[in-house]
Write a structure and sequence with these properties.
Elements (H helix, E strand, L loop, with lengths): L2 H9 L1 H5 L5 H9 L5 H8 L4 H12 L7 H11 L3 H20 L17 E7 L5 E11 L2 E6 L1
Antiparallel strand pairs: 1-2, 2-3
């Protein structure tokens, strides 16, 4: 797995733990021969969904070769978790932009209200002082919210 993918998964672990149910994704990863029988057994025996996702993201996927992130994103899409795959791909894109530009984005936190369904424009400043405008599209997805940055 590329370092950038490890960073994306690590920096978004809390969000991931509350954003999808992993068992269909695990089955897809098993079908693609990314997970072994032993890993499947270990993951399915975890007490909570959150610990299952944490184990998958922190310990297993990073050791599964250069295509592990792509297979994970593909499995998310195939199991009706495209909101998670889109989020991760957007985060990957932002990470790549940071690396290419050599600039660090100023962190912002968005508080999403439960009945949001709206478009919001947010201006983010680079350290260099350049301002970039992003369109934030918020949708309510039970039990979590997703914002797509374009």
């Amino acid at each position: 797995m590329e370092e950038i993918h490890k960073t994306v998964l690590q920096e978004n672990l809390s969000w991931l733990k509350d954003s999808f149910r992993p068992f269909d994704v695990l089955d897809k990863l098993f079908e693609k021969r990314i997970l072994t029988n032993e890993e499947m057994d270990r993951l399915k025996k975890k007490k909570t969904i959150q610990t299952t996702i944490e184990q998958l993201v922190r310990s297993i996927l990073p050791r599964k070769g250069p295509d592990a992130f792509s297979y994970f994103v593909e499995a998310l899409n195939e199991t009706k978790n495209s909101h998670v795959s889109e989020f991760l791909l957007n985060k990957e894109k932002l990470q790549r932009e940071k690396i290419i530009s050599g600039k660090v984005l100023v962190s912002i936190t968005l508080v999403i209200m439960p009945c949001c369904h709206q478009r919001t424009t947010v201006h983010m400043a680079y350290k260099s002082g350049n301002i970039r405008k992003f369109q934030i599209v918020c949708t309510v997805l039970w039990p979590s919210h997703t914002c797509t940055i374009t």
